[in-house]
């Protein structure tokens, strides 16, 4: 194995350790996050406590035809058809606590910035990452480590619905382009689709000040991916968490179903594009969970300890098709960076990062 260094302003930064002989097929990584989507809905669909509560939906009975069935397996298929028809059959999903399979956060803040820091760096940093303020992340993310490597430089992109992502990725230091919040597509060679999306984003304002609606994030990402063919992509969708904070269980479910459709769109594009087909792993997760009853489901954080409970899904050429795991296992969000680097045939250089997820590796 050979260690590579980057000379930067008079000092050296270790980038990675490259395995002498790459044994994986993964050449590209799509890391997808969705804010605040509970594992309860992922594995059992619409919650019987909430689905017809008049305090949480616009009209009583409005959700039953679309999302309700007495069989939890059928309910989850109604809510997330791609996830349960394709991802679960060709990939793997971790975190079904109903079956004893667990995924948790290591940070104790249990809200968004600390969660994304953990996902992107491989460790919690409660001492410094303890608010959602727009402060540049002092930690180097897996995206930045890749950006420093010649093989990935200029081929790392990030997109997010939340306007804090440029700070989480620390675009000032990393140089990674981040389209987030109400950013628009920039440049002299905008596609017609990007021009339309820009115009619509000016005209359509969602209900939140710092979070745009997910369709803008998704379609900005898709257009950029088609044009630039990046090797590492972060796409961070946001609607489920904000609808939950607003106590709108109907909109929460609708946004989850739309998120599932975006996963389908992404995976079908990946598998229909020669540079990505059978060379790309897609990892999907969430930054935190949330409360489990009517009094707490709108929130998360230290006061709601069960918001540490999350999930991880993945599909790609190196990861065995294990479906929804039912073994008694414990994983953490912090395992994602080292797993991604090992899938790429690299060793993760971040100090203190968690171990890799063995089930995702060949």
TrEMBL record:
Keyword Disulfide bond: no
InterPro entries, A to Z: Alkaline_phosphatase_core_sf, Metalloenzyme
GO MF annotations, alphabetized: catalytic activity; metal ion binding
Name of a matching Pfam family: Metalloenzyme
The keyword Signal belongs to this UniProt entry's keyword annotation: yes
Cleavable signal peptide: 1-20
Protein name, per record: Metalloenzyme superfamily protein
Native source species: Cyclobacterium xiamenense
